[in-house]
Amino acid sequence: MGCILSGLGWTPKTSMDPVAPEASMPTLELSLQEQELLTESWTLIQQDIAKVGVIIFIRLFETHPECKDTFFLFRDVDDLQGLRMSKDLRAHGLRVLSFVEKSVARIENSSRLEELILELGKSHYRYNAPPQYYQYVGMEFISAVCPILKEKWTSEVEEVWKVLFRYICAVMEAGYREEEKHRNVKGGTTKPLKRSQTTAI
Ligand code: HEM
């Protein structure tokens, strides 16, 4: 199968639209067979995670340069090709893919997984990284791993990864909105944290 990706097949402005606060939390529905497809393909992807992490973020910054501005470490770097060699970008990519690994490991425990992703969405509010961009990380992940898996990348494998990323993006958005609401109720700031206030850098 070719590696042509048309998107995650998900429009962010649905159940998580801020005008629909009563919307329920998205759920992850994967059969046992689909869960196996995910874990089996992850064991192959795992060998190349450092490379995949860098590819995802270079492509994200190429297609959506405004995303780079949310990163204190990269916002002033203009040379994207130079960034490919950056240890910081490698470390960041690894953090993101470790999260994907955790999600795959908890695929059978959806309540624990939901909790983790909600917290991640809340931290992204503090990083000032808005939900409309989350899906691009999923899309770039899929287009980066497709050539690695070669003939093992089937339409079924692609679909389970899309389902997982749609879920991650939707729950992250719910967490982001919760944090946004919480800060607005408290009358707190909606500005991004200073570098020293983030947990990650
Ligand atoms: C599926 C989408 C995404 C996932 C799974 C993800 C995951 C992560 C993880 C695991 C971290 C490490 C720190 C933490 O746990 O809080 C992180 C940090 C961060 N993310 Fe994301 N992220 C996603 C999308 C994005 C997007 C689209 C942006 C920018 C618009 C972004 C900006 C940031 C920033 C600024 C940090 C803090 C700096 C750092 O850790 O180096 N993230 N993200």
UniProtKB/TrEMBL annotation:
Cross-referenced Pfam families: Globin
GO molecular function: heme binding; metal ion binding; oxygen binding; oxygen carrier activity
Protein name: Globin domain-containing protein
Residue ranges annotated for the Globin domain, each copy included: 29-177
Family affiliation: Belongs to the globin family.
Keyword DNA damage appears in the UniProt entry: no
Organism: Leptobrachium leishanense
Disordered: annotated segments: 180-201
Top-level taxon: Eukaryota
Gene3D superfamilies for the chain: Globins
CDD domains: GbX
Keywords: Heme, Iron, Metal-binding, Oxygen transport, Transport
